[in-house]
Design a protein that fits this description.
The structure is a homodimer of 180-residue chains.
Chain A lengths: L1 H17 L3 H7 L1 H4 L1 H4 L2 E10 L17 E13 L2 E14 L5 E8 L1 H12 L6 H20 L8 E6 L11 H6 L1
Parallel strand pairs in A: 1-4, 1-5
Antiparallel strand pairs in A: 2-3, 3-4
The structure holds cGAMP.
Chain lengths: 180, 180
C-alpha cells in the first residue's frame, strides 16, 4: 500500500543516513559557531507536516509575513545508486518570535507530502482528497514507528504536525509553531 | 500498494521535472561542446535497472574493469518543499566498447531499486526476495505507463533493463549494454 512504500522510502532513502550526525553537521555550520546565534539554534531538523498535505510553498520564507528568512544551508554528499556525490542539502532559516526574538533552525517540509499532494492534484494517480487524508495519516503513523526503532535517529529531528485550515501548507502561525 | 507509491514518487518527485529539457542540459555540458566527444555522447539519460534489484554499487565506475570512468556532472537546481536550491545532479561517465571506442553518457540506477533492495535486506519492512521481484515488476510496468503518457519526457531517457545473474547489480557486460 502506498503510504507504507512512501514511509519506507523516506526512511531508507533519506532519514536513515541524514539524521545520524545531524547535530554534528549543524554544529559545524557557521550559524552555530557565531556566539550570538548559537544560543538560539535548534540542533534538531524540523520536519514540517501540514494537516492538509498541501505543501504549496517551495521555500519557507515565502508568505511568512517576513518572519522567516533564508539564512544558509548544511550539506551532506554521498555516492548513491550511480550518482557520484549526490547532494543532500538542508536549508537554514531564522524565525522571529512574537516578542521579536530571532531563532535559527534547519527545516523543511516532509518531502513525501509534496508527492501525495501532486498525486491528488494531477488526478492521474486516481487519488481523491479523502484518500490523501487517509494516506497521510497512515504515512505519519508508519514513519514515526520506523524512527522510534532507530536509535541513531533519536533526538535528531522533530516532526511538527500542524493544522493549516487554509489548505495551503502555511498558516500565519507557522512561525510560532516553529518557535515553540 | 508499495510499487505504485514508489513509481508515482519517482515520477512526481524527480522525472517529471528532470526529464524535460534533459537534452538541452546535456548539450550545455562541457562534454558535449568538445568536438571529439560530441559525436559520441548520448542525449538521453540512461536509467539502469538490474533484474535482481540489487544495485550494490554506489558509482558506476566501481568494478567495471576499468571500462567505465567518471567524467563529470550535469546539475539542476530547484526550490522544493522547503529546501532552497535543492540540487538534482546527474553523473556523466564514459564507457569503452569492446573495439576500444569511447562513448559518453549521463547515467545512474533507477533510484527506487535501492530502496526496495534495502527494504528486503534489512528485514524490518517484512519483504522477502520473492516479494521484491514482484514489487520490481509492478514498479517497472507502472513507471513505463506513467512516462509514456508524459509527452515532455519522450526521448529524454532510456530505461536499460538487464539480467545480472550474480545478483550484484553489475555484470561484466554492463558496459556493453550501455554502449548499445
Ligand atoms: N528534502 C529532501 N531532500 C533530499 O535531498 C532528498 N533525497 C531524497 N528525499 C526523499 O527521501 C525519499 C527517498 O528518496 P529516494 O532517493 O529513494 O527516491 C527519490 C529518487 O528515486 C528520485 N530522486 C529525487 N531526487 C533525486 C536526486 N537528486 N537524484 C536521484 N534521484 C532522485 O525521486 C524519488 C522521490 O524523491 P522525493 O520526492 O524528493 O523524496 C525523497 C523520497 O521521499 C529527499 N528529501
Amino acid at each position: 500500500n502506498v503510504a507504507h512504500g512512501l514511509a519506507w522510502s523516506y526512511y531508507f532513502g533519506y532519514l536513515k543516513f541524514l539524521l545520524p550526525g545531524m547535530d554534528k553537521r549543524i554544529e559545524c555550520s557557521k550559524h552555530w559557531k557565531t556566539d550570538s546565534t548559537k544560543r538560539r539554534m535548534c540542533k534538531k531538523i524540523l520536519l514540517l507536516y501540514p494537516s492538509s498535505c498541501h505543501c504549496r510553498l517551495r521555500r519557507l520564507d515565502e508568505d511568512s509575513s517576513g518572519r522567516i528568512t533564508h539564512e544558509g544551508e548544511v550539506e551532506l554528499l554521498q555516492d548513491r545508486a550511480g550518482v557520484v556525490g549526490r547532494v543532500y542539502k538542508n536549508t537554514v532559516y531564522s524565525v522571529v518570535s512574537k516578542e521579536g526574538k530571532k531563532f535559527y533552525f534547519v527545516g523543511e517540509y516532509v518531502t513525501c507530502i509534496r508527492t501525495m499532494y501532486e498525486m491528488e492534484q494531477s488526478g492521474i494517480a486516481g487519488l481523491k482528497p479523502d484518500d490523501t487524508r487517509l494516506l497521510s495519516t497512515k504515512f505519519l503513523i508508519t514513519i514515526k514507528q520506523i524512527l522510534d526503532r532507530d536509535k541513531d535517529c533519536t533526538n535528531m529531528y522533530r516532526i511538527i504536525f500542524y493544522e493549516d485550515s487554509d489548505q495551503s501548507g502555511k498558516t500565519a502561525s507557522l512561525p510560532d509553531h516553529i518557535v515553540k
